[in-house]
Design brief:
Strand content: 25-35%
Helix content: 25-40%
């Protein structure tokens, strides 16, 4: 099965820590975040991987070549000239997803025990173009869903911003994990450009089902120095 690991981000929230080192190469329990992500997805059968790169690409290529030498199958989607965000990044790598089967999308800065096989099987059992792994946690940005788990909107509780794409009420808040499964049909709703998958899902959810799947799991985003330290200590 195929997977894309989003690893092109600059990690600006980490300040000087990522000035000379890509966030994907920060060490978590003695291994790079990228190796942790590769091991995680391959453990659930996603053993055909593509990784997008941008920040310090030569260092990323060195690490990818090292992982290849360990037996992992990894292709590269080069965004050195232009950082495309998750939506544009996926569309730039659409050539890789040529087997007409659902694929996994995984953020490199996530450390979690979420069961990826359960997510994939849930997606296959529902008639949706994508399934987003969500959880209950304190945050400021949330997806809004109906009783059926279908994506209905998004809100930012800090700014009061809200986007509603469906009519069902009440809405339930769910925090995104940065992990999702999509069907190749998603590419028919995409184009070249710089945009996020979150924005795309909200844009298309008014005309086609985008499913969410709730998980109770350990989850850390290593995007801050505090969470980076916590990930090294807890996992």
């Amino acid at each position: 099965m195929k997977a894309m690991i989003f690893a092109a981000g600059k990690g600006t929230r980490l300040g000087k820590i990522t000035e000379k080192t890509p966030k994907a190469l920060l060490r978590i329990n003695g291994k790079s975040a990228l190796q942790n992500a590769v091991e995680k997805v391959t453990a659930h059968g996603f053993d055909d991987i593509i990784v997008n790169i941008h920040h310090h690409p030569h260092l990323m290529i060195e690490e990818i070549n090292r992982l290849r030498s360990l037996g992992y199958r990894i292709e590269i989607s080069d965004e050195t000239e232009n950082l495309l965000e998750t939506g544009g990044g996926l569309y730039n790598a659409k050539w890789f997803f040529d087997d007409n089967t659902p694929f996994l999308l995984y953020n490199v800065d996530i450390i979690t025990d979420l069961n990826l096989s359960d997510l994939y099987n849930f997606h296959k059992s529902h008639n949706a173009i994508a399934t987003l792994a969500v959880m209950k946690r304190n945050d400021t940005r949330y997806f809004l869903t109906g009783n059926d788990g279908i994506l209905r909107g998004w809100c930012n509780t800090e700014t009061g911003e809200e986007i509603i794409t469906g009519k069902e009420e009440p809405f339930y808040k769910a925090a995104f994990t940065g992990i999702h499964v999509a069907d190749p049909a998603i590419f028919s709703y995409m184009s070249d450009g710089v945009y996020s998958m979150t924005g795309l899902y909200l844009k298309i959810s008014g005309e086609i089902d985008v499913q969410t799947c709730m998980f109770d799991c350990k989850w850390i985003d290593i995007g801050s120095e505090e969470s980076l330290k916590a990930a090294g200590g807890d996992f």
